Amino acid sequence: MIDSDVFVQALQDLGVNFFTGVPDSILGGIIAELMIRRVYVPAVREDEAVGIAAGAYMGGRVPAVLMQNSGLGTCLNTLMSLNLIYRQPCLLIVSWRGQGGNDAPEHLVMGEVMPQLLETVRIPHRTLTEKTFAEDLRWVVETLMKRQIPVVLILTKGVVKGLHP
């Protein structure tokens, strides 16, 4: 398991310097660490967070948005009509709720289709593993900066330490 402070520091070391998003239990440890560092701007909805991140990018920052995968549905139009068209890079750190059919019923459909959805809308993505942690982070940041589009880093439950063991 990757400690939340190590995860956040690695992103900051790669140049990610603005964080916003919507809370989720899988992302709780990361968000707590970002709040301790005073670099997190909470949002009410995922599409709002994507808009905030776009503004941060236009202000010279390298933004990341944290959300659970159901939030992809909420912000899909924003990602397509703002970020992809106008080349607004943004790292989306997305928790994979419903993966493998193990979660609350409301997460199961998105859990099953998320990888195919990202492929369909042509958003590059990678699933973080503890073994490939450094390589995964480097790939997502290099890809978003090179291609100037959103890139998704998928987090499964337990890969990064949460608030509750």
Overview of this protein structure:
By secondary structure, the protein is of the alpha/beta class. The protein is built from 6 helices and 6 strands, in the order αβαβαβαβαβαβ. The chain has a 6-stranded parallel sheet with strand order 2-1-3-4-6-5, sandwiched between helices.
**Straight-line distance between termini:** 10 Å
- The count of domains is 1
Helical content (DSSP H or I, runs of 4+): 40-55%
CATH homologous superfamily name?
A: Thiamin diphosphate (ThDP)-binding fold, Pyr/PP domains
If helices are DSSP runs of H or I spanning 4 or more residues, what is the number of helices?
Answer: 6
SSE string, helices as H and strands as E: HEHEHEHEHEHE
Helix vs. strand class:
alpha/beta
CATH topology: Rossmann fold
What is the overall silhouette? globular
Highest-level CATH class: Alpha Beta
Summarize the main sheet.
6 strands, parallel
Query: What gyration radius follows from the Cα positions, in whole Å?
Result: 14 Å
Number of strands: 6
Q: Estimate the strand proportion.
A: 15-25%
Mean model confidence by pLDDT:
90
Any guess at the CATH architecture?
3-Layer(aba) Sandwich
List segments where confidence is low: pLDDT < 50 over at least 5 consecutive residues: none
Q: Trace the largest sheet across and list its strands.
A: 2-1-3-4-6-5
Question: Could you list some keywords that capture this structure?
Answer:
single chain, 165 residues, alpha/beta, Rossmann fold, six-stranded parallel beta sheet, 6 helices, 6 strands
